[in-house]
UniProtKB/TrEMBL annotation:
Species of the source: Methylosinus trichosporium (strain ATCC 35070 / NCIMB 11131 / UNIQEM 75 / OB3b)
Any Pfam family the entry gives: DUF1007
InterPro entries found in the cross-reference section: DUF1007 (IPR010412)
Name this protein carries in UniProt: DUF1007 domain-containing protein
Domain of life: Bacteria
Length: 213
């Protein structure tokens, strides 16, 4: 059974030949910044998601002039579609505070930009519904549970802190290697164009941990 996908990705799957014949369907490189309130609480996570060449090429069709990439204003309608459709999927961002689920509110400061190579990056802030104490463990992961979208953190400087209290730090906890049966399941999903499972994405997800004294 194929999972439901964010609206813009569904359109891409329908219009781009061969798009639905590979697994995963979209590749995203992630950079994240943990935002803090003036009194030192964790306010939320600001994401920058850089999409692969195929998604970028589709998103930019008919946009831009004289061979130049389109402006943020031209990309605003696509940013709106992405923000609205990703809400159903919790923005693929799953956080914990003191070992309990931490819920996010609607995104803020959403925009898309395209670089000189016409690669698209989506920027947005995911504010927590209620800011949380930085002195208790806060962590988050970015993943699509069905692994139709593959998220990987940037290799260099993937995480930053914004206005953090003195002494705060971050670390990345890498996922455990897949078991042989799980690797086989992923391989079969690739060739059958089916999801490897509703909870497969978490098996490949890196966890970002924020620690403050």
């Amino acid at each position: 059974m194929r999972p439901r996908l964010p609206g813009i990705i569904v359109i891409l799957a329908l219009l781009v030949p061969g798009f639905a014949k590979a697994h995963p369907h979209v590749w995203v490189v992630v950079r994240s910044e943990i935002a803090f309130t003036p009194d030192g609480k964790v306010r939320g996570v600001r994401h920058a998601w850089t999409f692969d060449e195929m998604y970028s090429a589709f998103a930019l069709q008919g946009l831009g002039k004289d061979g130049k990439p389109p402006t943020r204003e031209e990309l605003a309608p696509i940013a709106k579609v992405n923000a609205e459709s990703l809400a159903e999927f919790d923005y693929f961002t799953f956080a914990k505070h003191d070992n309990a689920k931490a819920a996010f509110g609607p995104p803020e400061d959403v925009y898309l930009e395209a670089d000189d190579k016409k690669i698209v990056t989506m920027h947005f802030l995911l504010p927590l519904e209620t800011p949380v104490s930085a002195r208790k463990p806060f962590s988050f992961q970015v993943y699509d549970p069905t692994y139709f979208v593959a998220f990987d953190f940037e290799k260099q400087d993937p995480i930053a802190l914004a206005a953090a209290p003195s002494g705060c730090s971050t670390s990345l906890v890498q996922p455990k290697p897949l078991l042989s049966a799980e690797t086989q399941k992923l391989s079969e999903a690739f060739f059958s164009n089916m999801s490897p499972g509703a909870d497969f994405g978490i098996k490949l997800a890196t966890r970002v941990v924020v620690a403050c004294p």
